[in-house]
Amino acid sequence: MKKLALHWQILIGMTLGILWGMFASGFGLVNFTLDWVKPFGTIFINLLKLIAVPLVLVSLVTGVSSLSDISRLSRIGSRTIGIYLTTTVLAVILGLLLVNVFEPGKAFSAEKREEFKEQFAGATTEKSSDAESVKKQGPLQPLVDIVPSNIFHSMTDNGSMLQVIFFALLFGIALIMIPPDKAQPVNDFFEGLNMAILKVVDIIMKTAPYGVFALLAGLVVEFAGDDPGSAVELLLVLGYYCIVVTIGLALMIFIVYPLLVVFVGKTNYKTFLKGIFPAQMLAFSTSSSAATLPVTMECAEKNLGINREVSSFVLPLGATINMDGTSLYQSVAAVFIAQAYGMDLDLMTQLGIVMTATLASIGAAAVPGAGTVMLVIVLQQAGIPVEGIALILAPDRILDMLRTTVNVTGDATVAMMIARTEGQLHPVKETEEV
Fold first, then answer.
1. Residue 87 and residue 256 in contact, taking contact as beta carbons nearer than 8 Å
2. How far apart are CA 264 and CA 254, in angstroms?
3. What parts of the sequence cross the membrane (predicted)?
4. Which of 47, 192, 248, 266 lies most in the core, judged by the most C-beta atoms within 10 Å?
């Protein structure tokens, strides 16, 4: 009997996790779920985080050193960053168009606004203080943060992925510049290490369906508590806002990316979606582009035929700086909060949101909830009351799952485009697809 494909196993795990969460909320099993089920989800996330930094470091070193031509590295790098910035700006503008047309914020009553502000006052203060510390930094601080003072310290923190990428690029370039006979032993070491790390990824992914089940079960019971109806009621109140964000994210996945995949990547979009689907499901359940990166790379290489030379460079970079879904969410959320407070934002203010959201997405860590902290900076730049973030904290975890799925899909789309233009996209047989 043929083994069920990984993405179907993950999908089943997600479904069962949600059902268990609702069942646990209704039958007094909330504490049992939090104590005995959710920890396995945490273990799964820790396993993915465990391998994220080694994977990025080793894959980038092998990818850059295999280029054997610095001018080619410069060409691929400039194209990659250019496309990432373009899709991010497009996502922000799309979000602004949708939120101005549908105006979801105007559906809020003053009573409901005060209720949310009171309920989430603590979380709002925490996000505001985090953002304030970022805001106090100088204009070139993001550039300073890219260069590590101690690479070993950076490798102990998944939030320092840009620093790891910088070191890996620098080390890979150095390997290109030294004599080939001296570089070869180092290249062989990293190639072997890369194979071992990918095998660790395979082992971890065998536990994915169970980890996803535990994650979703824990999420549902935390959201609903002992009353499953409260989760439904809360989502209905904020449903309009969620629908607008979801429409924007759907347009990215089903309109924007298909156009890029078909006309630039010259690949059937159904084939593309089928190949990247396991990574999308994992992104949805983990809300972390960084945690999903090992699977995204595996799907890109095995299912889509993207050469490792391209995937090992473009995808780790995308997981760090390309946040299309997060950028779209930030633009919708900012204007939504302004509408809820009865503010009318002029064109210049909204153009400022485009710029700030784009830059904020580059600096956002590829972990759950990072976009919320960066949103505070967007709100402050636009002169929108920061406490209004309390209005969107309730459904944010669900939307975080959706926008992370868009982020990962965008990374794979750009990787396919770069691979096609570089002649590094190889046909994949149907039997090889997940």
1. yes
2. 16
3. 12-34, 40-61, 81-102, 160-178, 237-264, 347-367
4. 248
Query: How many Cα atoms sit within 13 Å of 333 on the Cβ side?
Result: 32
Q: Record the tokens describing residue 258, joined without a space.
A: 């298909």
CA 411 to chain centre: 9
In the chain, the amino acid numbered 242 is C
What 8-state DSSP symbol labels residue 147?
S
Q: Quickly tell me which residue has 């946040």 as its tokens.
A: 323
Q: What is d(CA 403, CA 170) in angstroms, rounded to the nearest whole number?
A: 31
| Residues 288 and 368 sit within 8 Å (Cβ to Cβ) | yes
Check whether 86 has a pLDDT greater than 80: yes
The answer to whether the beta carbons of residues 28 and 11 sit under 8 Å apart is no
**Amino acid letter, 49:** K
Residue 99 tokens, joined: 């939120």
Q: Give the list of residues 6+ apart from residue 4 with CB closer than 8 angstroms, or none.
A: 12
Q: How many Å apart are CA 13 and CA 277, to the nearest integer?
A: 15
Distance CA 214, CA 39 (A): 7
Most distant CA pair in the chain, distance: 72
Domains of the chain: 6-432 (1.10.3860.10)
Q: Degrees (nearest 5) of the Cα angle 424, 427, 432?
A: 120
Residue 233 · residue 75 · CB < 8 Å: no
Q: Quote the tokens at residue 237.
A: 């109140």
120 within 8 A of 353, measured Cβ to Cβ: no
The encoded tokens of residue 190 equal: 């990293």
Given a contact cutoff of 8 angstroms between Cβ atoms, the answer to whether 53 and 161 are in contact is: yes
Place of tokens 């790098």: 77
What percentage of the chain's residues is helix, strand, coil (to nearest 5)? 80, 0, 20
**CA of residue 115 relative to chain centroid, distance:** 30
Q: C-alpha distances in angstroms, 122 versus 78, 235, 369?
A: 42, 21, 15
Confidence tier at 97 by pLDDT (50, 70, 90): very high
- 3-state DSSP assignment of residue 425: strand
Q: How far apart are the first and last CA of the chain?
A: 16
DSSP label at residue 306: B
State both tokens at 19: 């059902």
pTM for the whole structure: 0.69
- Identify whether the C-beta of residue 341 lies closer than 8 Å to the C-beta of residue 79: no
CA distance 341 to 388: 8
